[in-house]
Specification:
The chain is an alpha/beta fold and 290 residues long. Helices cover 52% and strands 12% of the residues. A five-stranded parallel β-sheet has the order 3-2-1-4-5. A three-stranded mixed β-sheet has the order 6-7-8, covered by helices on one side.
């Protein structure tokens, strides 16, 4: 059997994103050893029992100094502290990537704490996930056929970007690139706003006196629209705050669009409603077929 492409990988956060990353690399025989760090000893022990990691890391300095790759798979608000922790100990050839859903803030953290080693960090965002969290939710095929967006920095060498590109492809992902700003603007519209709307609708119903009655009649439409409201509150709090400016613009634009619908209803303007629904149906139908 040939040598694995990555002899040692260190993962901070061994839940859905980090755990699936580890399992995918194991499936591809691409990782020699996987070491895990996290906030919870219980979670790390579970990840080891499930075969996600080989060892629980005890000493950050000792583990990252000779690692081929370090993945930050924690909520984005924790990444600044992790960068500060690993910065003094990164080996010359150790690369760092992440799985954060926002990029401008993570890049800012990296610049602040990695200093002259920032070129060793190649930001990434895997467009894959589920409502469940923790090591038990990890799947070896989570990234299969899914997109991963890299947002390379000017300081990154072509070889470093290619190496991280290879890493995510080994997980089965289809890899593309955007700038950090482009990334945050795009995902404010197509990911962060939908999550915000889903959480908001469920929160609205949850506060009503007849909540139980309403939910007892909710069916597939409500289930499909609100599925993502079962996602991690901590993670989505961090994402919304990290991408606040772009998300504020999207919320304002959506509110304006919602008011157009409100006016059409108020004015009994069935033609306007049908116009809106028809365009939406066509675009959604064409997207689903891609």
């Amino acid at each position: 059997m040939s040598e694995p492409q990555f002899k040692k990988i260190v993962i901070f956060g061994v839940g859905l994103i980090g755990g699936s990353f580890a399992l995918a690399l194991r499936k591809a025989n691409a990782a020699g050893e996987i070491v895990g760090f996290g906030r919870s000893v219980q979670t790390l022990q579970q990840a080891q029992q499930l075969g996600i990691i080989d060892r629980i890391g005890a000493d950050v300095a000792a583990e990252v100094c000779d690692a081929d790759m370090v993945l930050l798979a924690t909520p984005v608000a924790q990444m600044a502290d992790i960068f500060a922790c690993i910065a003094p100990h990164l080996g010359m050839h150790t690369l760092v990537t992440d799985g954060g859903s926002t990029k401008s803030d993570v890049v800012s953290y990296a610049r602040a704490h990695l200093g002259g080693k920032v070129g060793q960090f190649v930001p990434a965002h895997p467009i894959a996930g589920a409502e469940q969290s923790g090591p038990a939710a990890a799947l070896e095929n989570l990234y299969q056929g899914k997109r991963v967006v890299l947002t390379p920095l000017p300081e990154n060498s072509a070889a470093s970007v290619a190496r991280v590109h290879e890493l995510w492809e080994l997980c089965g992902a289809v890899v593309g690139e955007l700038t950090p700003q482009q990334h945050d603007e795009v995902f404010a519209a197509v990911s962060h706003l939908p999550h915000l709307l889903s959480f908001t609708l469920v929160h609205d119903l949850a506060q009503r006196d007849n909540r139980d009655l309403l939910l007892s009649f909710a069916a597939s439409g409500f289930r499909d629209f609100t599925r993502i409201a079962a996602s991690s509150p901590e993670m989505w709090r961090d994402i919304c705050m990290a991408n606040r400016d772009a998300l504020l613009r999207e919320v304002k634009q959506y509110a304006d669009e919602l008011y157009v619908v409100y006016q059409a209803l108020e004015n009994n303007d069935s033609a306007k409603l049908e116009e809106i629904f028809r365009l939406s149906s066509e675009v959604r139908g064409n997207w689903r077929q891609q």
